[in-house]
Write a structure and sequence with these properties.
single chain; 2 helices; 40% strand; Alpha-Beta Plaits; 99 residues
Length: 99
């Protein structure tokens, strides 16, 4: 039986790997750890690879690595996650969709 207080989320994460020397897997681990700290359970993490941005805001940064993450957690998970990552330079954007 599933927990009625948890919701299922689909996250799309855009990383900013400019000047980042470690493998992308370390950033995947960072995101899964962060979700765990916020009370979330991570299901599947998929590296979608490098994609070009549709709307380029910086001429020297036209694309980067995208991740797809399936997770479940409390209703306040998206807000808490946005608050925790807003000053993180390696995470450019997170889009959270409730499924």
């Amino acid at each position: 039986m599933s927990d009625p207080t948890k919701r299922t989320y689909q996250l799309t994460v855009i990383l900013d790997t400019r000047g980042y020397e470690a493998p992308v897997e370390s950033l995947e681990e960072k995101i899964t750890t962060l979700l765990g700290e916020l009370g979330g359970d991570v299901g599947k993490v998929e590296n979608l690879g490098r994609m070009e941005f549709t709307r380029v805001t910086e001429q020297d940064h036209t694309g980067d690595t995208y991740l797809s993450v399936q997770a479940s957690g409390p209703a306040n998970l998206p807000d808490e996650l946005q608050d925790r990552i807003r000053l993180d330079d390696q995470i450019k954007r997170i889009m959270v969709r409730s499924v």
